[in-house]
Amino acid sequence: MRAYENTALPIDCEQTISQPVVVARMLELLELTPTDRVLDVGTGSGYHAALLGLLCAEVWTVERHAHLSDQARSTLDALDYTNVRCVVGDGWEGLPEHAPFDAINVAAATGAQVPRALVAQLAPAGRLVAPVGDEHQYLTRIRRTPKGAVRERFDPVRFVPLVRGEMR
Q: Is 18 noted as a catalytic residue in this protein?
């Protein structure tokens, strides 16, 4: 039973589900509250969105692969997650029509820079957590403050890249 291994596992569309310890660390770094509105970029299987749905008031999760989004929606519906909404779209752009968000979780590597569109969708005091870097990736938290975005680097990680553009 590979579900109990602390390792990333493959899912459809050549994507992966993150290892449980990394998911837990990302949730910790987001500093979530029960009233938070959250954007989850990279729905994948829907596991991270489900956990966010347990911890927060409202979750929007965006996935570029329609097949993965449909599978996640079916699973979340079957488990009665009424506060999680699945959207097919370009995660690089986020969901500006539903912003601002108290927290943004990015479950794919952004490269050297976090997309500006995502940072712009943070509410005042909002937090964004993403794997940032090219050759070497680190969990990074960006916090929106009155003086601008403050960036903190944490644990080394390895994620699939956040892909821009065309949905599949």
A: yes
